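Below: protein 1.
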Amino acid sequence: MNSTHTDQILDWYAANARDLPWRAPDATPWSVLVSEIMLQQTPVNRVLPAWSAWTARWPTPGALAAEPSGEAVRAWGRLGYPRRALRLHQSARAIVERHGGEVPTSHGDLLALPGIGAYTAAAVASFAFGQRHAVLDTNVRRVLARLVSAQEYPPKSQTKAEVRLAESLLPLDPPTAARWGVAVMELGALVCTARSPRCVDCPVLGACAWQKAGRPAYDGPPRKGQTYAGTDRQCRGRILAVLRDAEGPVGKPALDVVWSDSVQRERALDGLVSDGLVDPLDDGRYALPG
């Protein structure tokens, strides 16, 4: 890849990027942080209404930090992986306590927030503050695997080689590097998709190593799709739905009726309690965390 290919991807992004509210010029760093947490393993169309409701109710970290963590879990609704709601609440409190209620600009300070990993810290530093960091989500990793490494899919777990490659491709100008990061991400989401890539629409098709190699099929470890029906995740979701919809604590029978397998149901409930998503009360009832 060279600077011409970089410009081609940036030009494609300028013409084809989705109009998402967390990309707006007036999007706050907090709203960007909320979007990045919500978008983990969750499609954009499901995140949009939840993000809008969340940022309307809690437009600042301080607004969220002032409420019990259970309200964050309740507002999370059916986005899935509700521990993310707790992490956002913990981050909001840390931002208030450590940074005066303002999302920190430093990548190191972002990384030190509760529940903020390498990806999220780099994404917020790049997309909220225009800094130069390699932002490697699933879409970016897939684009680079095909474009540079002639592989249909990246390794199952992120490697140091992928990070080095991504860093080597970053434009030197920080704002351009930040725009490049989101442009490659969008290219993976809209064109260089996992199952049916629309190669004919790719702005750098002529430079794609995977295309030049004849689009060799993936030959790594089996790629297993995630299942949901019948899993502990589904059971946990049903238990949480009862608690979210209740105006106060609920008795155990109200939770028992949502899942017929008692062993799995108790395991799921124990997991919710240990994760801090459910509070067992002294009177035998259950509630969202206070």
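Below: protein 2.
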Amino acid sequence: MTFDVAIGGPLVFVGALLGGLVNGLTGFGTGMTALPIWVQVLPPLLVSPLTIACSVAGQLQTLPSIWHAIDFRRLLPFVAGGVLGVPVGVKLLPHVNAVDFKCGIGILLIVSCTVLLAHHSRAAWTRGGKAADSAVGLAGGILGGLSGLSGILPTLWAELRGWEKDARRGIFQGYNLSILLFALVTQGTAGLLTAELWPLLAIALPGTIAGVWLGRRIYGRLDTARFAKTVLVLLLVSGVILVATSLR
């Protein structure tokens, strides 16, 4: 796939703007929002590092405002599992069929978010402890190394756990920043950060920064219940988009 700046440039910017908006609002989501747009004009080997780089930029932008909510004892099992998963995802990246991958992630989001939205008043899931948290982190790390979508599974897990708004945001943000920084370094050592990436970053980063700024301001207006519902609806919409674009 050859990148045409005249056609693809606006789509790269729009994807970055929307991804930044969701990232600023929820503490994750650059990949799940921008990926369905970017895969229309970019190959997976460029989409993945672009997603990760823009995600890291968005995380760093809002980190000071959420630092107080990060519980490092709760976060550590997620990060430990994620670090083990990232190299697996990076190794899989050159061999993954983009269409099948999009469709699989989309179906996962549609089913899980529909179930969680339909049973939103249930009691919090407390089983599994730190071992379950580490397993979720491991799976998220694989997705992070593969596509930059490290936040999906920890986000769904935090909803099952029933944590309040800032606690969820602290896990999303602390985990995503740690795993995506590691994924970016791992992709770099694997030779996946090619010269083709830098012009794309010049287009995408301004959109990411503007979107994050706006999303962070919306976040301050939401209580825990509205925040949880907003996150699930955004994930559900992303899943529908992923499946729809993979079936074309």
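The chain has ten helices and no strands.
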